[in-house]
Amino acid sequence: MLGQVDERTKRARAEVLLRFAAEARARFAAGSVGSTATVLFETPESAGRWLGRSEANVLVVAGRPDGRPLGNEIGRVVLEAVDGTAPDRVQGRVLDLLPPPPVRHAAA
């Protein structure tokens, strides 16, 4: 088709855009260091650490001092440093966990 971009050029352009996106995510994560965030923990990582997302959608890795699981917990977390294994996420320290919301029963 006339005027169509060839596959090699498409791949090269996509690589540039993906690199820009990764750099933007890393800058955004680094900008959150030093703040406190509310984080929902969902995915287990190594050594008792869990991966979650803050309310600002920053990836956060943290663990409990006692090593207990954090799955499906929501906690207040101090965001302390960019994670050395992934520049688009930060390491945090759990300050406390929020209590689960009350269970509402349907009216009979």
What do you see in this structure?
- With 108 residues, this protein is of the alpha+beta class.
- It is 24% helix and 35% strand.
- The model has no long low-confidence stretch (mean pLDDT 92).
- The protein has one domain (7-97): Nucleic acid-binding proteins (OB fold (Dihydrolipoamide Acetyltransferase, E2P)), CATH 2.40.50.
Question: What is the end-to-end distance?
Answer: 65 Å
Give average pLDDT, whole number. 92
The Rg value, from CA coordinates, equals 19 Å
Q: Helical percent range?
A: 10-25%
Strand order of the largest sheet: 1-2-3-5-4
Topology-level CATH name: OB fold (Dihydrolipoamide Acetyltransferase, E2P)
Task: Give the helices and strands as they follow along the chain.
Answer: HEEEEE
Q: Give the CATH level 1 class.
A: Mainly Beta
How many H/I helices? 1
Strand proportion, as a percent range, falls in 35-45%
**Can you tell me the CATH superfamily?**
Nucleic acid-binding proteins
Question: Looking at the structure, what is the overall shape?
Answer: elongated
The domain count comes to: 1
Number of DSSP E strands: 5
User: Regions with pLDDT < 50 over 5+ consecutive residues?
Assistant: none
**Major pleated sheet:** 5 strands, mixed, barrel
Overall SS class: alpha+beta
CATH architecture descriptor name = Beta Barrel
